[in-house]
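My main concern about presentation is that the manuscript never shows what a single data entry looks like. Each protein is reduced to its one-letter sequence and a matching series of backbone shape codes. For the editor and my fellow referees, an illustration may be useful. For illustration, here is how one protein appears when written out as sequence plus structure tokens:
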Amino acid sequence: MRVNPLWIRRTIVLREPSAEVWPEVYKVGSFPQYTALYKFAHESEGTPVDEETKAKLIEIRDASKGATKPEQEFTFDAEGKDPDMLNRRGREIKELALALYPRPILLQGPTGMGKSVLARSLAKAVKQEYSAFNAHPGTDMSFLAGFWRPAPTASGAITIEWQNGLITDAAEKGHVLLFEEMSRAPQEAVSRLFGLLDEGFRYWPLPEKDSNGVEVHKDFWFIATSNPPDSGYRTADIDKALESRFAGVFDLTKPIADEARIIKGIVDEEIAVAIGRLCLALRKNKDTFIPTRDMVLLAQAIKGGMTPKKALEVSLLPKFRNHREAVMTIANDHEIWKK
């Protein structure tokens, strides 16, 4: 007999499977007021469940574990009125980061947790121009350092002139530079950062131009972000010598944005509360943790005209390939996600 994993949704039974029949499976909570218990037909019928289905159900069990009613409610007045949409934790980290300005800082954490939002808020606070880029293994150093390019003269002839790269321009002018995904940058780019981040005497070598390099402006602020290695991201560990040059390293493992205000600014309050409650429930387990960015994308899909059910299927479920059933089990405790 094959058991449909979706059969467990909102199923209320009187007893759990006995330890003798299935010791690995036990009670799973669901949000908000229902308790789903796995009951398998083979207990009464004596028909064994195949190993594939058994493994699938255990996977659902593990992913759904702890998805009970959230410890806190999703409200719209809990975080204040921060103009940059940072929550209390975000504001605390911002204050600590500003105390280190203009020394370099590193923001570590999963994607979609608000690292870029925080960097823009910091640039605004110090009243400096802001520039950013995403590093990747194929990042060209000419984009960062600069390059010689042909240029016409007044007489109609052609000469060559130097064009500053992104880091060179920011270092010279004293801008705030966000180096995103630093752990994905090529080694050549990472090696060039050492002098730029040195304490006391900062320098940016430019062998492509001349031997003098660039004098780093006193207000130049280098902010880097990185995703954790071995967590589904194609990243590498940050070199210890490089990491030691950061004046502050902040672990952003929890959202720092005022999510309630952000979501309410996209959809009406009923939908916003439903999204918030769903996310609080999903965050009870690390395998179904949903970042701020996915909350926003889900809300925008609904605002764009999708039904909540379709938005969930298109914007959220594909990101949980191994735990789709667990997400659906939690979502289906709310009528709104069935529409």
Notes: The chain has 13 helices and eleven strands. Confidence is low (pLDDT under 50) at residues 1-46, 64-71. The domain at 88-251 is CATH 3.40.50.300 (Rossmann fold). Residues 309 and 337 are 5 Å apart (CA to CA).
